Amino acid sequence: MALKAKAKVDHIDINTSWCKGCGICIGMCPTQVLEFDERFKARVAHLEKCINCKLCELLCPELAVSVEEAENE
Ligand code: SF4
Ligand code: SF4
User: Fold this and answer.
1) What digits encode the pLDDT tens for the residues 52-71?
2) What is the pLDDT of residue 4?
3) Is the CB of residue 50 below 6 angstroms from any atom belonging to ligand 1?
4) How does the average pLDDT of the chain come out, rounded?
5) Which atom of ligand 1 is nearest to the CA of 26?
6) Using CA positions, which residue lies closest to atom 3 of ligand 1?
7) Nearest protein Cα to ligand 2, atom 6
8) Residue 35 within any structural domain of the chain
């Protein structure tokens, strides 16, 4: 059985109006893609490291994170 390769992530939307700065997404991201900005909202710092696990999207209690995959070529 062949494993399906995960789609590449095009961008990650973080709704900073909804973000409460809990840090869950930052702490749980396995590859340190996210960080706090100067207002203690989450922001994308290293998109190139994202492995598309979607933990950030699944774990954000405010539903502020959306991982957007690139269109298939
Ligand atoms: S998990 Fe959600 S609310 Fe918490 S810091 Fe990340 S984006 Fe903000
Ligand atoms: S999808 Fe996974 S690797 Fe990418 S930013 Fe979210 S938690 Fe980190």
Assistant:
1) 999 999 999 999 999 999 98
2) 66
3) no
4) 94
5) 6
6) 19
7) 56
8) yes
- pTM of the full predicted structure? 0.91
Q: Is the CB of 31 under 6 A from ligand 2?
A: yes
Dihedral sign, Cα of residue 28, residue 15, residue 37, residue 47:
positive
Q: Residue 50 sits in a domain of what CATH number?
A: 3.30.70.20
Is residue 73 domain-resident?
no
DSSP 15-70: -TTT-----HHHHH-TT--EEE-TTS-EEES-GGG-----HHHHH-TT--EEEEEP
| 2 is a domain residue | no
Q: What percent of the chain has pLDDT over 90?
A: 86
Report how many domains make up the chain: 1
Structural domain including 27 reads 9-68
User: Would residue 1 count as lying in a domain?
Assistant: no
